[in-house]
Specification:
With about 90 residues, the protein is α+β, with helices and mostly antiparallel strands. About 35% of the residues lie in helices and about 35% in strands. Strands 2-3-1-4 form a four-stranded antiparallel beta sheet, with helices on one face. The longest helix has 18 residues. It starts with a strand and ends in a 6-residue tail after the last strand.
């Protein structure tokens, strides 16, 4: 099942994001369930969140993946939305 995870960083947390970026990218590579991913950008082009498409067995598996993401463990996110997603184009 495809699941969209949209996470918005806490205000002023770019340093937390950068400090944990390598671990986050390694986690993506290690877990193997990320289909697409990339940062959300603010009006100045700075990273301020994440959009990740997971191929997980269910919402609970996606929630577990999200909880163990190094970004989440570092307290980077202000809010996270996890919802089933249906690919129509692409």
């Amino acid at each position: 099942m495809l699941i969209a995870l949209m996470a918005h960083d806490k205000p002023g947390a770019l340093e937390v994001r950068m400090d944990n970026r390598a671990a986050h990218l390694a986690y993506i590579e290690e877990t193997g369930i990320v289909q697409q991913a990339g940062p959300l950008l603010d009006g100045e082009g700075q990273m301020c969140g994440s959009l990740i498409i997971l191929d997980a067995k269910d919402i609970a598996a996606a929630e577990d993946w999200a909880a163990n993401d190094p970004y989440a463990r570092a307290g980077l996110f202000d809010r996270v939305t996890i919802i089933e997603w249906k690919r129509v184009i692409g």
